[in-house]
C-alpha cells in the first residue's frame, strides 16, 4: 500500500463514496455531497432506479409486456387442448404432441418441431415440457425472432446426451436460446447436463489430458426481456446458465448444483449483458456461483446462497491484453459457505478498460478462504504472466456490512496493480474473523487507495 496519499484525495473518496451510499438510503441532503452526485464520476439517478424498482416498473409499465408477467402458473398442462381452449387463450404446445417419447431415446427433433410451432405462433404461445418425464436432448438451438411473446414451462426433466461426438459441431453449447424477445421460462423442472463424462475428460481434473472445450448447459444469447425462474440446474458439462449479450433479464428462484470438484461448473455466468437482476438463487458447484465478465452493466444479484464453489466473481477481465468494461454491479444479501473466494474481482496483467461502480453489501461468510479479494495479477495459465504497464482499472468499489469467518488468515486481500492502483475503495462495517481459532484475521493491501467507515476489521495497515 502507498504509505501516504493526499488528505484531500482521501476526503473526496469518502465524499463520493458517501454519496454512493446515501443515494440508496435517500436520507442525506448535504449540499457538497449532493453536488458530488452531479459532478463526479457517477450518475446516482440512473443507478438508483436500476437498483430499486426498475425491473417491476420497466417491465410492468412496458405496454408490450405486462400481462406476460401476470400470467399465473396454473396446474401443469400436459396436453394440447385446442378444441376446448377459450377464444382468447394462449396457444398450448407440448413436446409430446410432436413426438417426444421421454423413453431414453433422443427427443431433440420433437423439441425442435415444438419450438418451431411455438415460435411461429401469431398468438401468445406456451410450450410445455410435461411433468414426471425425462427427455434426452443432443445440442439444440432454439432460435428467434418469434412471432409473439412466449412462455416455456419446463415441469419435467431435460437431460443431456453423454455422447461427446454429438457435440462435435460446436463443443461450447448444449442448449442455446438465441435472439428471442419477451420470453419467460419457468416451471420447477430440471435441466441436467449429465456432465460427468466432461469432468473426467477435463485437463483440470486430469493434468495429462489436453485442454478441450466443454459445453455450457443453457445459454441465452442476445435475448431481450427475459424471465428465467423456478428451475433446477444439475451437473452441467461446464457452466450451468449463461446470459450472453442479453438485455433486461430477471433470473430468480434458481437452484444450481454440481459436485464441488467438478471443473468450470459456474452457476450463472453473465457476459456482455445489460440490466440483469439475479435473485433468490441457491448455487452449489465446483466453480464461481456467479461470474460477471466484460461488457456487463447494471447487474444486480440479491439473496444469493453460494457454496461450495469459488464465490461471486467479477472477472476474469483483460486476458490477452483485451479491453474489458464492467460497471454498476450490486451484490446485496448473500451468504457464502466454504467457498474458495467470497467477493472477488480478478484481472489479468496487460488488459485495459475498467471495473467500476461496484457495491457488495450485507454479505455473510462462513469459512471462506479469501472473503474479500481483488487480484490484479490473476494468471490462470501455464506460462507466467509478467507485469505489464496497462491494466483493467478498478475504482469505486464498496464493501458494506460484510461479516463472518475466513478459512485463511488473510481475510481481506487487495493485490492491485503497481502502475494502476485500485482507487476509491470503501470498506464500511466489516467484521471478519478466523474460522478455526475464532481469532483476528489480517488484511493485505497493495497499491490501493481506500477509506474505512464504521467498524472495520481487519483493516489495511
Ligand atoms: C424449424 O424452423 C427452421 C426455420 O424455419 C427450419 O430451418 C427447421 O428445419 C425447422 N425444424 C424443424 C424440426 O421443423
Ligand atoms: C407425477 O408423479 C407424482 C408422484 O408419482 C404424482 O403424484 C403426480 O400426479 C404426477 N403428475 C403428473 C402430472 O403426472
Ligand atoms: C447454435 O448456436 C451457437 C451459438 O450461436 C452456434 O455456435 C452454433 O453453431 C449453433 N448451432 C447450430 C446447429 O446452429
Ligand atoms: C488421466 O488420463 C490418462 C490418459 O487418458 C489416463 O491413462 C489416466 O488413467 C487418467 N487418470 C485418471 C486419474 O483418470
Ligand atoms: C489467449 O490467447 C491464446 C492464443 O490465442 C489462447 O490460447 C488462450 O486461451 C487465450 N487466453 C485466454 C485466457 O483467453
Ligand atoms: C473450513 O474449510 C476448511 C477447508 O475447506 C475445512 O478443512 C474445514 O473443515 C472447514 N471448517 C469448518 C468449521 O467447516
Ligand atoms: C500479488 O500478486 C503477485 C503475483 O501473483 C504475487 O507475487 C504477490 O506476492 C502478491 N502480493 C500479495 C501481497 O499477495
Ligand atoms: C468468536 O468471538 C466473538 C468475539 O470475541 C464472540 O462474540 C463469538 O461468540 C465467538 N464465536 C465462537 C463460535 O466462539
Name the descriptors.
Pectate Lyase C-like; 7 helices; 27 strands; 461 residues; single chain; 11-stranded parallel β-sheet; mainly beta
List the helices and strands and how they pair.
Layout: H1 7-25, H2 31-39, H3 44-51, H4 54-60, H5 66-70, E1 91-94, H6 108-119, E2 125-129, E3 134-137, E4 140-143, E5 150-154, E6 157-160, E7 173-178, E8 181-186, E9 190-192, H7 196-200, E10 216-221, E11 224-234, E12 241-244, E13 247-257, E14 268-271, E15 274-284, E16 290-292, E17 296-306, E18 312-317, E19 323-337, E20 341-348, E21 352-368, E22 370-378, E23 393-406, E24 410-415, E25 422-434, E26 442-446, E27 448-457
Parallel strand pairs: 1-2, 2-5, 3-6, 4-7, 5-8, 6-9, 7-10, 8-11, 9-11, 10-12, 11-13, 12-14, 13-15, 14-16, 15-17, 16-18, 17-19, 18-20, 19-21, 20-22, 21-23, 22-24, 23-25, 24-26, 25-27
Helix pairs in contact: 1-2, 1-3
The chain binds 2-acetamido-2-deoxy-beta-D-glucopyranose (NAG) (8 copies).
One 2-acetamido-2-deoxy-beta-D-glucopyranose binds at residues 141, 169-170, 173, 176, 178, 221.
Amino acid at each position: 500500500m502507498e504509505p501516504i496519499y493526499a488528505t484531500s484525495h482521501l476526503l473526496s473518496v469518502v465524499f463520493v463514496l458517501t454519496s454512493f451510499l446515501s443515494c440508496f438510503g435517500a436520507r442525506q441532503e448535504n449540499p457538497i455531497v449532493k453536488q458530488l452526485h452531479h459532478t463526479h464520476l457517477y450518475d446516482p439517478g440512473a443507478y438508483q432506479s436500476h437498483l430499486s424498482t426498475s425491473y417491476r416498473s420497466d417491465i410492468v409499465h412496458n405496454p408490450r409486456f405486462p400481462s406476460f408477467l401476470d400470467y399465473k402458473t396454473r396446474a401443469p398442462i400436459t396436453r394440447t387442448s385446442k378444441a376446448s381452449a377459450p377464444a382468447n387463450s394462449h396457444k398450448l404446445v407440448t413436446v409430446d404432441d410432436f413426438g417426444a417419447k421421454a423413453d431414453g431415446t433422443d427427443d431433440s427433433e420433437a423439441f425442435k418441431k415444438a419450438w418451431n410451432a411455438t415460435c411461429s405462433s401469431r398468438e401468445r404461445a406456451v410450450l410445455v415440457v410435461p411433468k414426471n418425464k425425462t427427455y434426452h436432448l443432443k445440442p439444440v438451438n432454439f432460435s428467434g425472432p418469434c412471432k409473439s411473446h412466449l412462455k416455456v414451462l419446463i415441469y419435467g426433466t431435460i437431460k443431456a446426451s453423454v455422447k461427446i461426438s454429438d457435440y462435435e459441431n460446436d463443443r461450447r453449447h448444449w442448449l442455446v436460446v438465441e435472439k428471442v424477445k419477451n420470453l419467460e421460462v419457468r416451471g420447477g423442472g430440471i435441466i441436467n447436463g449429465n456432465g460427468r463424462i466432461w469432468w473426467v475428460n477435463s485437463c483440470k481434473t486430469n493434468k495429462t489430458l489436453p485442454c478441450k472445450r466443454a459445453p455450457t448447459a443453457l445459454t441465452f444469447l442476445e435475448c431481450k426481456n427475459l424471465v428465467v425462474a423456478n428451475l433446477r440446474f444439475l451437473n452441467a458439462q461446464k457452466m450451468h446458465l449463461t446470459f450472453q449479450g442479453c438485455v433486461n433479464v430477471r433470473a430468480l428462484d434458481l437452484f444450481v448444483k454440481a459436485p464441488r470438484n467438478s471443473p468450470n461448473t459456474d452457476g450463472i455466468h453473465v457476459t456482455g449483458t445489460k440490466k440483469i437482476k439475479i435473485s433468490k438463487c441457491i448455487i452449489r458447484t465446483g466453480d464461481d456461483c456467479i461470474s460477471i465478465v466484460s461488457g456487463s452493466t447494471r447487474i444486480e444479484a440479491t439473496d444469493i446462497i453460494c457454496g461450495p464453489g469459488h464465490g461471486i466473481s467479477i472477472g476474469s477481465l483483460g486476458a490477452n491484453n483485451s479491453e474489458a468494461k464492467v460497471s454498476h454491479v450490486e451484490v446485496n444479501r448473500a451468504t457464502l459457505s466454504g467457498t474458495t473466494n467470497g467477493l472477488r474481482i480478478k484481472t489479468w496483467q496487460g488488459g485495459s478498460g475498467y471495473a467500476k461502480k461496484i457495491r457488495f453489501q450485507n454479505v455473510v461468510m462462513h469459512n471462506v478462504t479469501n472473503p474479500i479479494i481483488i487480484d490484479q495479477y490473476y494468471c490462470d495459465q501455464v506460462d507466467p504472466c509478467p507485469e505489464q504497464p496497462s491494466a483493467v482499472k478498478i475504482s469505486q468499489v464498496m464493501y458494506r456490512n460484510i461479516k463472518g469467518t475466513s478459512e485463511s488468515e488473510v481475510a481481506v486481500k487487495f493485490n492491485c496493480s503497481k502502475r494502476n492502483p485500485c482507487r476509491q475503495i470503501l470498506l464500511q462495517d466489516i467484521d471478519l474473523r478466523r474460522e478455526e481459532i475464532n481469532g483476528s484475521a489480517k488484511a493485505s493491501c497493495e497499491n490501493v487507495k481506500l477509506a474505512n467507515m464504521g467498524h472495520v476489521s481487519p483493516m489495511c495497515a
